[in-house]
Design a protein that fits this description.
Number of strands of chain A: 12
Strand content of chain A: 25-35%
Strand order of the largest sheet of chain A: 2-1-3-8-7-6
Largest sheet of chain A: 6 strands, mixed
Largest interface: A-B, 61 and 61 residues
Oligomer: homodimer
Radius of gyration of chain A: 22 Å
């Protein structure tokens, strides 16, 4: 049975990502989290903390893909604009909501004040459901097919745990990798293209050259939702490598 | 004299960036390279090695921004589709071009064959100018306001060196950072918002909380094209921090 492909977009929000101040690491974490659930990231965008930009991106992505995951902009400061922008994108109201407020009150009780800034983190769009934040308590939220998370990587990771069970995944695409030391990428490229053609789109192949002081080579990656086709692909790749006088080595942790 | 803002988009191309296999580090490098030249990255997108996706993104971004920088997809393999896609986006022809071919021939002479796959790297859209690749010779190219570079980070960095002189930058936005140990982000947020309002858009402020085993705090970043306004902003931020019983410390390497 061929399962459908379930696709997602990731929207990373933050001036600091565009200025170069901060290196994003959330996209990779989200993609790796979603893959075994049968959800593939098909596109990502990085926008500034600007309401118009966030609204336009959210609206473009939520109709194009099954799911949208956003990071950033739900903290307590004036430049945290995501919650209001997402509400505007959906055309719904947003205000401080009791359930979110209660979570923050419990978290800050006896330690510090729930001032006007912190209360911003309790602003939840009408109709949204909360996403638990096991790290610092201020919740994310889901509105329609859009999941709004914090940008601090440890918190993003924590919020993902409350997201997985909400998703209906499709075909799980797996990747397997052959490492070929000493084989130049250009040598093997013609055959790789022919291999992919022969599978009629069932398997996709990629080659990633590497260079180290100890030598060079290429990683050949085969990706497919069809395990049998993937097994054949690995055999074919290994044969290509041996034909060039090198020894193929399957390596793990492929994405 | 108020200079205009020159804005750029970065388009990162590669299945491996969306699958989670590869962590992009080019966006940060490009943003940091462009900032002192007076070019600000205003948006970034990450798309797959799919011609339609690349074409749509290139066309959307090149009319919206002054410059577009792409990475990835100009290698020798079948999944390197960027050059042809960019040509299609501009509606121009693409073929192996003599100047690019000559570079590759000289590079591979006596070492290995300039086979069909490697020759793909000499495919240059009509009207494009070449961008030098000091690392591995296969050139990038500029077509209109779009600069097409390789995705391997060392090569991207090398290609940037032949790009800077082609750009007409605008106002240079500088950032300065105050580190405030022990100040919770939520405490200072209200005042930060007020500070930004008071500058009427001349200075933008961001706060980035940090947590380490040794303690916590916040980095307060002020960004502006107006050096005098920036100096005042640093003084104001320092006052805010002292008012909370902490010692402000200006730290370097801000973006």
């Amino acid at each position: 049975m061929t399962q459908r492909k379930v696709k997602a977009a990731v929207l990373l929000i933050g001036d600091e990502l565009l200025s170069g101040r901060t290196q994003d690491i959330n996209l990779q974490a989200i993609a790796k989290y979603l893959a075994p659930l049968g959800v593939q990231v098909a596109e990502a965008r990085i926008v500034a903390d600007t309401p118009d930009e966030i609204i336009a991106a959210v609206n473009a992505l939520r109709v194009k893909y099954d799911y949208v995951f956003t990071t950033g902009g739900i903290g307590p400061t004036h430049d945290d604009k995501t919650a209001d922008a997402v509400a505007a994108a959906f055309g719904v109201n947003i205000d401080v909501r009791e359930d979110a407020r209660a979570i923050l009150e419990a978290h800050y009780k006896g330690r510090t004040s729930l001032n006007e800034s912190r209360l911003r983190m309790a602003r939840i769009p009408d109709g949204a459901s909360l996403i638990a934040n096991p790290v610092s308590k201020a919740p994310g939220f889901q509105l329609g097919n859009v999941f709004v998370m914090a940008g601090v990587p440890s918190i993003t990771r924590g919020m993902l745990q409350d997201i997985g069970h909400r998703l209906e995944g499709g075909a799980v695409v797996r990747a397997r990798t052959i490492r070929a030391k000493g084989v130049p990428e250009g040598d093997i490229a013609d055959d790789l293209g022919a291999l992919e053609q022969a599978t009629n789109g069932v398997v996709s192949f990629g080659s990633y050259p590497w260079f180290t002081p100890e030598g060079f080579g290429v990683h050949l990656v085969a990706r497919s939702a069809d395990a049998a086709a993937l097994e054949k692909a690995i055999a074919d790749l290994s044969a290509l490598v041996r034909a060039r006088g090198a020894e193929p080595e399957e390596v793990g942790d492929a994405a």
